Structures are given as structure tokens and as C-alpha cells.
Amino acid sequence: MNQVQEFNDYRSRMNEKIMAADNKVIKRFFNLDTNAYQEGALNVKTKEMLGLACSMVLRCDDCIKYHLGKCMECGLTDDEVYEVFAIANLIGGSIVIPHFRRAVEYWEELKTA
């Protein structure tokens, strides 16, 4: 199983378990996150690029994978993704580089999935 399928399977499985707990605050938080990325004054593509850049700066590999997947769904090109990577590295500094490497690896897998 490649890392894209592994990530998506794990995320789905754990989200089901989390939602099954039926915690109102958690459900509302997940809903807020979902709604924040809906079309609005900013289009979905722009919001996903922002999410990717922020995730890289915050150094959250799971978030990076999630937003890369969404960027792929939105039809981002390699050039667009690398511009997001460039901004994230500029803002986050050299500490982002290991996450950048893993992001490039994951992006390459997404393109073949």
C-alpha cells in the first residue's frame, strides 16, 4: 500500500471512531474546519494553498498531506505547488525543509495515485 492510500485509510478510520464518540464540541470543531474551506470570498483552491502553506510552517505532516491531496483535487500544477512550498519555506525558515522534502515525496505519489 502506498503512503497516499495508507494516509487516507487511516484518516477515514480514525475520523469514524472520533465521530462515533458523539462529542458535541469535537463535532462542531470538525464542522467549523470543513466549512472554513468551502467556497466563499476566497475560492477553494486559494484556501487549500493557504492551508498547505500554514501546515508547512506549523510543521504538521498529516496536515500537509491532507492539503496536498486537496490541492491535487483542485488541479494545482507542479509550478503552483512549488510556489506554495517556496512561500512556506520563506516564512517558516530552514526548520521547514524536512517537511518540505516529505511534502515533495507525497506530492509525487499523489501524481501517480
From TrEMBL:
What stretches pass through the bilayer?
A: none
The record's section on InterPro entries has: AhpD-like, CMD-like
Start and end of every Carboxymuconolactone decarboxylase-like domain? 27-105
- The signal peptide here is none
State any single GO MF term.
Answer: peroxiredoxin activity
The lineage's top-level taxon is: Bacteria
Q: Which Pfam families match?
A: CMD
Query: What name goes with this protein?
Result: Alkyl hydroperoxide reductase AhpD
User: Which species does this protein come from?
Assistant: Adhaeribacter aerolatus
